Amino acid sequence: MRNRYNYLKWNLLLRVLKQKKITIKKVFNVFVCSLAYVLKSKKSAKSPFILSLELWNECNAGCLFCRDAKGVIHDINPEGSKGAIKKGKMPLEMAQEIIDQVKSRVLIAVLYTNGEPLLYKDLHKVIRFATDRGVATMISTNGLKFTQENITQILTAGIDFIKIQLGGFTQDVYSIQIRYGHVEKLKENIRMLARANRKGKYNMLILIDFILYQYNKHQVDDVRKFCDDLGLMMNIRPGNPKCGLEDKEPPLSLEPLPLQISCDWLWKGMQVNFNGDILPCCETVIWSGSKPYEIFEVGKTNVMDVWNGPNSIAMRKMMTTQGRAAHPMCAQCYRRGVEFKW
Ligand code: SF4
Q1: Chain segment 128-176, per-residue pLDDT in tens
Q2: Ligand 1 binding site (Cβ under 6 Å of any ligand atom)
Q3: Which end of the chain is more exposed for a tag (fewer CB within 10 A), N or C?
Q4: Do 193 and 162 form a contact (C-beta atoms < 8 A)?
Q5: Does pTM surpass 0.85?
Q6: Which of 93, 170, 106 is nearest to 133 (CA)?
Q7: CA-based max dimension of the chain
Q8: How many other CB atoms sit within 10 Å of the CB of residue 72?
Q9: H-assigned helices in the chain
């Protein structure tokens, strides 16, 4: 069953209310984005309510479904060639300027897309910048790079939510999918994070995301106990066996492609890649040949102009008149709503 993350959403809402990161203006922006989606308007609200930034697409874990052993990111475009997805870092000023432009309307800034956010040395500066402007932030991480220092940095900077991937409870199981990393070190890192969160009374939300396969399902109870002992939320989502586990695991059992449903992202969320490419959604960063709405230039571009500019409008029109099937990237996409993918 698709996870609606209702418990998480409720807790996140309570947290950001307490942190005074929600305003009437932001709620109104969500309402107008949602109404524009329902009415299929060519324009949405003044700003998206979800902003997703790819700070750096490098990663230290090397999960099979994401990249090859040399770190080359898999391209989801079947027409793409190996190595077509380029790597790079977003300059700090770019991340800050984008957040500054949408600060009064955006609900949350998602500070990762395809890379490991803890590798980005200025992560805490981006979080602090967003917090100072009343913008909630979240990351998803493999957790292997946590240190006492960066934990303190991001907690004091005001991060609201961290999701941590855990694909097994013992090394032999964990390393089937995740090429690099030691699960005992990861568990110790998670304990360190939970301790620091509790000790400093930060009340930041932590969710352990268990990626379920046939090979690790016997460890679900161990992970559940681990989370219960530390007071952490736990989620179980299906693992993707592509790129290495196809002969060991059954294929993902997927719902039919939602080809008749317009995609919410075009009215509600915006993605900016490390190089400034302004894109409709996070799928586009790993679809080679994605044409950006525009390329963000520090001091020149305003993302809110792009959000309701001609290229965004053209994409919305395509979605409403021809549907997802009109674009090869959307035609293969299972996303519904603006939730996590699984
Ligand atoms: S349908 Fe999928 S690929 Fe297309 S814009 Fe929406 S989320 Fe992105």
Answers
A1: 999 999 999 999 999 999 999 999 999 999 999 999 999 999 999 999 9
A2: 263, 265-266, 280-281, 283, 324, 329-330, 333, 335
A3: N
A4: yes
A5: yes
A6: 106
A7: 54
A8: 13
A9: 6-18, 24-39, 92-102, 123-132, 148-157, 171-177, 183-199, 220-230, 265-268, 303-307, 310-321, 328-331
